Amino acid sequence: ADDVLRGLCAQTWRDAPHDAITATPTCVPGIQLRGDGVVASAIKPAEDGDGVVLRAINLRDEPRDATWIVPYAGIEAKSVRLDETALDHNSVISVSHDANTSVVHVAMLARGVSSVRVRSRSPEYQA
């Protein structure tokens, strides 16, 4: 199904001025996962309501790197267990930012599952 189905694309027209409708983008990018042999299994709100959990599965018999593209700047990312409790070790390799996007790099074990919790940086984290 991943080879055939396309991601959802949403548009809001309610507040658009009539002359700006033609300038409205046809698609606003959402969260994306990139990696050879890696598939997304969940993109969901965190159970406590603080952030989003991104879950991926490595379908290959060898370790892989995966990259989550998040269309928000200024996030922090932490590895979590399936029940969303934080891990002592962090398998998130790095988080990089540009003006409108954050990129989260994750190291995945062979046939492994990765869960990453992303959320806006707290004021303490930005200091």
In one word, what is the shape?
A: globular
Order of helices and strands: EEEEEEEEH
Poorly predicted tracts of residues: none
End-to-end separation in angstroms reads 44 Å
Kindly report the average pLDDT value. Answer: 80
- Give me the Rg, rounded: 17 Å
Q: State the helix count.
A: 1
Helix content: under 10%
Q: Please, could you describe this protein's structure?
A:
The model has no long low-confidence stretch (mean pLDDT 80). This protein has 1 helix and 8 strands, in the order ββββββββα. The protein has 127 residues and is mainly beta. The protein is globular, with a radius of gyration of 17 Å. The strands form 2 sheets. It has a 4-stranded antiparallel sheet with strand order 1-4-7-6, with no helix packed on it. It has a 4-stranded antiparallel sheet with strand order 2-3-8-5, with no helix packed on it.
Describe the secondary structure blueprint for this structure.
Layout: E1 32-34, E2 38-45, E3 52-58, E4 64-70, E5 75-79, E6 92-97, E7 102-108, E8 113-120, H1 123-126
Antiparallel strand pairs: 1-4, 2-3, 3-8, 4-7, 5-8, 6-7
